[in-house]
Amino acid sequence: MKIVARRAARRHGRAMDLDRYFARIGLHAPVSPDPAGLAMLQSAHRLAIGFENLDVMLGRPIRIDSASVFDKLVLRGRGGYCFEQNRLYADALGLLGLPASPLLARVRLGAAPGVTPPRTHVCLLVTIAGEAWFADAGFGGSNLPPLPLNDGASAQTSDGAHHRLRRIGEPGTLSGEWLLERAGAPDATDGRAAAHLDWQPQYTFDLVQVAQDDLEQGNHWTSTRPGTRFTTLHVASIPIAGGFASMVDRELTIHGPAGTERRSIGDASDYGRTLREVFRIELGDADAARLPLFA
Fold this sequence. Notes:
The chain is α+β, with helices and mostly antiparallel strands. It has helices at residues 2-11, 18-25, 35-48, 54-57, 66-75, 82-95, 212-224, 229-232, 268-279, 285-290, and strands spanning 51-52, 100-107, 119-128, 131-135, 147-148, 154-156, 162-167, 178-183, 200-205, 235-240, 243-248, 251-256, 259-264. It has an eight-stranded antiparallel β-sheet with strand order 5-4-3-2-9-8-7-6, sandwiched between helices. A five-stranded antiparallel β-sheet has the order 1-10-11-12-13.
């Protein structure tokens, strides 16, 4: 498997090294190319690589080519947001015999009624034995499982939340063809969920083909548009065993089986330590001190 994967990586011009990726996410062997393997890989990835936008806040460009993403998220131990996370995840899936195509989505979580958000989230369509599956290792709002692309498909995650897909419209419409929903504890999210346990929209998407330049355009908007969540707030989140952790600016929330813990971050040293210990994100103390939050 190692030799085949490395040859495939060279053939596709990719920087992916499956051995190092597996070490980063805590897997000791390749997963099987089936739904169980997809679920195992996505869970391991999400539990190991935190979601974050801190390079945006540091004024650094977000590069989403395979080599740059592998260097940042695997070799340097950083996290990233959807365009980075799902690039890395898709590269790994492809080498494991699970071809994945990107899809663009409109995030509905926390959006005001009547607002049509831009397509600034990327998720994946994975083909397994001729069947289409929805997958996403890069949604920072909550924990997500892979789901078969069927109307009403549902699953439960370790934080107790339920997730489901609904087919709601026609391809290309502003309302979207598919809707991903979640029902569960609001504390097991990044703070954008409404304060109830009922179904809430997460995002909508359709199956229109996406080009690399479409991804580059969405990533550029996400990382540079003034006044948005990613250009005004310092964001980090990660699923944890039985729960979810989120940090927005100085406010840390950790939700687990025993309840919810909240505290305020004291200084840059505390912030950097919390990134490492809770979110598994390696950001040096000098960079933490340079964040607008502390500068």
